[in-house]
Design a protein that fits this description.
Length: about 425
């Protein structure tokens, strides 16, 4: 298999965890390149469900090497908990999981700042963050005040924490939040450093040696295109670049070594948190999709907002990421709908537009222009090949691909590994 970037094409939760798990069978190394424990990637294997937040979703396949790349913001306490959770279900990370010395750390004070910032934002300005400290950790990175995993390996680490806590307490005081106890944090993080030391390495040579030896590398995106800090619905976005361009920056693998891009996309749309969402349905359809699709946040448990497939978003994602192949998910969720709509363009202030406006305010004014297709009203969750699909389901999927550009690689009809139709992947 070639070197592949896998990205989310909508607002996250497209089913990336499941598709990575399926594709890992053919890969040797799986690399997370951005985001942090705001991600929640669900993998259901051999009847067991696991939600991965930091560890690449390839970890469930024995013998595969997993890397947390430099573009990730990693909370050491969350990672230790995740390694323990995996160990308790029979999966050992030691010797298979490597964290870059250049990976930024999310500290408890970033989480405190995230929550205090969010609480201080007035209604209408709230982002609806996951409260995991992601924004403040990336802000520290670009402000050049962040701590990196490699810092856990040096004797100055406790003093570096003390310095950061002193600075953060000034900011927290401005936000009327409680100050932090530096010595308590020093104890917490020196203990965490002991636990994580064996995993922290320079991942640049690790990745390059794998590539040079002809191994297949799978780069696992978190979040999605519409949450990208540059291309998403700014400011209602996350603080990283989930799009395919971010994969090279966040891993150190050269763009010259990428062979293809897979875009994971749901056959409808969901969003969690605040921000514009043109096809959001507040009625019966939205409720049906939420119920049948179990649309509750894997990390926060928040209900996800639901609506019809948005081909304007899909085309935009295709262009930005260079999607070669789509992995379309959750077709089975639509089995009971007599009629299905697809948003093909927007109406903005009386004009028809076919691109995503940069302004979130404009996007919020966009009204979807729909085309309607008949539903298939048959169960698809036990279908095992394209040919077995109802004709109307084939027509729907083919139309989505036609409107979006690219080709169909995988069609997913259920959460488990087995419920996967491999078309060109
Ligand atoms: P991710 O963040 O992109 O990895 O997606 P999440 O794991 O947060 O959310 C996707 C949800 O849909 C999970 O609960 C998956 O188990 C589930 N899922 C994935 N693919 C399918 C599918 O084809 N059909 C159904 N019904 N569920 C799916
Ligand atoms: P996966 O990888 C869906 C959303 C949050 C919020 C915004 C900013 O599982 O697809 P943040 O905590 O990142 O500062 O929050 O981004 N968000 C996600 N939505 N799936 C995710 O990850 C998300 N990660 C962040 O809800 O709107
Ligand atoms: Mg998720």
């Amino acid at each position: 298999m070639a070197n592949t970037i896998l990205i989310g094409s909508q607002w996250g939760d497209e089913g990336k965890g499941k598709i990575i798990d399926v594709m890992t069978a053919q890969a040797d190394m799986i690399v997370r390149y951005q985001g942090g424990s705001n991600a929640g990637h669900t993998v259901i294997a051999e009847g067991e469900k696991r939600v991965l937040r930091l560890v690449p979703s390839g970890i469930l396949h024995e013998g595969k090497i997993c890397v947390i790349g430099n573009g990730v913001v990693m909370n050491p306490l969350d990672l230790i908990e995740e390694i323990r959770m995996l160990r308790s279900t029979g999966i050992e990370c030691r010797g298979r999981l490597f964290i870059s010395t250049r990976t930024q750390m999310v500290m408890l004070y970033h989480r405190a700042l995230d929550r205090a910032d969010e609480a201080a934002r007035p209604v209408g300005k709230k982002i609806g963050t996951t409260g995991r400290g992601i924004g403040p950790a990336y802000a520290a990175k670009v402000s050049r005040t962040g701590l990196r995993c490699g810092d856990m390996l040096v004797p100055e680490f406790p003093d570096m924490i003390r310095e950061q806590v002193a600075e953060t307490n000034v900011k927290l005081a401005h936000l009327n939040a409680e100050p932090l106890d530096a010595e308590e944090l020093v104890r917490t993080y020196t203990e965490a450093a002991e636990a994580l030391k064996p995993y922290i390495v320079d991942t640049v040579p690790l990745i390059h040696e794998a590539d040079r030896a002809g191994k297949s590398i799978l780069l696992e995106g978190a979040q999605g295109t519409m949450l990208d800090i540059d291309f998403g619905t700014y400011p209602f976005v996350t603080s990283s670049n989930p799009t395919s361009g971010g994969a090279c920056i966040g891993s150190g693998l050269s763009p010259r070594r990428i062979d293809r891009v897979v875009g994971v996309i749901k056959t409808y749309t969901t969003r969690v948190g605040e921000g514009p969402f043109p096809t959001e349905d507040f009625g019966e359809i939205g409720r049906t999709l939420a119920e049948r699709g179990h649309e509750f946040g894997a990390v926060t448990g928040r209900p996800r907002r639901c609506g019809w497939f948005d081909a304007v978003v899909a085309r935009y994602a295709q262009q930005i990421n260079g999607v070669d192949l789509w992995a379309m998910t959750k077709l089975d969720v639509m089995d009971t709908l007599p009629e299905i709509k697809i948003c093909v363009a927007y109406e903005l202030d009386g004009r028809r537009i076919e691109t995503v406006p940069a302004s979130a305010k404009e996007l919020a004014r966009c009204k979807p222009i729909y085309e309607t297709m008949p539903g298939w009203l048959e169960e698809t969750s036990n279908v095992t090949s394209w040919d077995q699909l109802p004709e109307k389901a084939k027509a729907y999927v083919s139309r989505l691909v036609e409107l979006s550009g690219g080709k169909l690689g995988i069609l997913s009809v259920g959460p488990a590994r087995e419920s996967t139709l491999r078309i060109a992947l």
